[in-house]
Design brief:
The chain has about 150 residues and is mainly β. The chain contains two helices and eleven strands; from the N terminus they run αββββαβββββββ.
């Protein structure tokens, strides 16, 4: 009889217990904080400085920024996006000393060059399908960053 009661109690406890599961697409450890990208969350911490939703991949937009009138006077376009082989960077004003840097999702620079022509082709044939970032600088000032999808 004890064995039956013990087995019943064990089954009842196992059936009542539940755990949160998540499909982790990425993760890591930063200092003493560990994180998982793609994990569902229950609560969000908010303050005057902003909000924090742990384990949630936040949507973001990369916009034109600059100091003074640099960003406002440079007209840039990167196409096609998504790209298969070659990305074209179109610059309306080639009088500025612009430079581009293509980086991967980890921030490693894959290609960098001066922009001398109105149309600059960037070879992406040998890159694996992923998300890349194309940053355009005028000297030490970032003019614009493009999020590029390689298919």
């Amino acid at each position: 009889m004890r064995k039956i009661l013990f087995a019943a109690a064990l089954l009842f406890t196992a059936g009542a217990a539940s755990a949160q599961t998540a499909v982790a697409t990425a993760g890591g450890e930063a200092g003493t904080v560990s994180y998982t990208v793609g994990q569902p969350f229950v609560e969000t911490a908010q303050s005057d400085a902003g909000s924090l939703a742990p384990g949630v991949q936040q949507a973001y937009t990369i916009t034109t920024v600059g100091v003074g009138d640099v960003a406002a006077t440079v007209e840039l376009n990167a196409y096609p996006n998504p790209v298969a082989d070659r990305l074209t960077l179109s610059v309306a004003d080639t009088d500025k000393s612009l430079r581009y840097t293509l980086t991967d999702n980890n921030g490693r620079a894959l290609a960098t060059s001066e922009i001398a022509n109105a149309l600059t082709e960037i070879d992406m044939v040998n890159l694996v399908p992923a998300v890349y970032f194309l940053r355009v600088d005028d000297g030490n000032v970032m003019v614009r960053t493009f999020k590029i999808v390689k298919k």
